[in-house]
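User: Run a structure prediction on this.
Assistant: Running it now.
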Amino acid sequence: MENSLLATVDIVIVIGFLVLVSVIGFVLSKVASGGMEDYFLGGNKIPWWVLGISTATSNFDMSGTMIIVAMVFSLGYKGFLVEIRGGVGLSLALLLIFLGKWLRRSRVMTSAEWMKLRFGTDTQGKAAHLLSAVANLALSLGMIVYFSKGAGKFLTYYIPIGEVWCTSIMVAIGLFYTLASGLYGVVFTDVIQMILLTLTAVFVTIKAFFIRSDVTLPEGLFALNLENPASNGMGQVLLEKDPSQWESIFAFFGICVMMWVVRTVLEGMGGVGGYTDQRFFAARNEREASLLTLEAMILSLFRWTMVAGLVVLGYHLIQSGHSAGAQIATDPEQVLPVVLGQMLPDGIRGLVLAGLIAAAMSTFDSTLNAGASYFVRDIYQDYINPSADARKLMSVSRWATAGLCVAGVGLAALVPNINAIWGLITMGLGAGLFVPLFLRWYWPRFNGYGFAIGTGVGMITGLIANKALGLPLYVSFPVTIGAAGLASVIGSLLTAPTEEKVLINFVTQINPWGFWGRYNEKAKAAGLVTESESQRRVVEKINDMLGVSVSMPFQISMLLAAMAFVFHDWIKFTYFSIVTVLCAVGLYFFWWRNLKSEAECAKDDERFKPLNEAIKAAKSIE
């Protein structure tokens, strides 16, 4: 088809945005040069509302949006069910209630460094620490490949210079301000990017809402059940396009949805690693860690109204006989770039394009900054050069950031499509981590050796099952998590348990759910926890469990109501709106009223500071 060329005003807007974020990165470079705490955590001084915007923007990526639009375009509400595997961000509902504050209470820099708090700094702690660092670094690289691939595929529609060159231009800007200012540059440019994304989403939503009356959506798009969707809507198009890519999604659809839910719950209860955990480590206190999560959940509304709007506009192109309709009817991943290129006026197109470039850059720079922290903090400083001074560590931080970027962009050229790499990350490599990450919070007998063995076996099994054998999802996922779980349990039971003192300190600092009763009693006996504090900790757990019962339906119903509004599906809109309001009332009683005050948070930080300073000072080699 004939591509829609950008007008001069569009080009000026896009270039202006790129210049603006570069200037912000340069201005903030001095603030981030104080050391690794500043470079990777913003010195724990960044306000919660900025971190919340950054979390929402980082999850509003271009590649993921292209996939989600393709799924909803082909499957309707069933596409929403597919994207529970990652695109919905359902783990936020669990992070909101309890996991976010647990992460902030850890008071560490990276998810790998967290292993020292849980497993100690002896041999087993070092094993868990190293495997966690390697696994998170591999996942960060995979995510950079994924974002680079999606950005390149999107931009080639507008810039006829090839996918690799389009990707290289975009990531070069993101690399510049990430190198210059670390997390400061990432989160404050995210604020600018969210403004553009919000304007983009509002424009698309309004346009689609008023054009919806002239568009006939397939009946299958309005179904919300677990039947095989291939015969509804345009689901069969995906099967015909690339059976090897989509077959595991359509076959045994109900079973697949249940597995996606299990995956998301495991992720939300165990931790997601990467840039998401980094936001919680960077929060000023645990209260703000919770507040930033609610903000990120609410801001995700804009993504899903835009998705529904793009679906409506895509069907409008098809039904109006537009030449672009044939392309998106056979390749749903092209709905996003084609609709924006064909249905937006000059100027608005440039604003929208800048917003989507912002989405891609936000997730890219977040992953890049977090990925570099695993190499510098957990591999270089602990295993390569423990005596490195602050200046040397800052230099290595920037080299690691650049190296990770180059490797990711290079590998993106070898990936066949966006969904392939996303499926490998979420249900392949990622699936191998879910069980070890889950067990670490809830089972005291789970030790560092078990974590290292379970992580290694899980990731290798995930790669073999998904890539070497090409097993369908409903086989590869249970095989992967089963192998990781079995290896974790056997590895733990056949090796010495974690030192009791480490476990007592952990349960005192975090107050996690699980089988920690004996260690809670020992903490009281040692005078680490008073009787009144012990009672408050029990009440906190009860409120948290009640909070989870409303936080997950709150998030799901809120997003489905937003989509139903754009689709003019008033019955579902009314139903999901009522559920959202009722769950919001529950959140007020079980979550909001029980948040710690600023003073209580400051007191806790001072109380546990000596323990965390000792952990940070411990090196993995002497």
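The chain has 27 helices and no strands.
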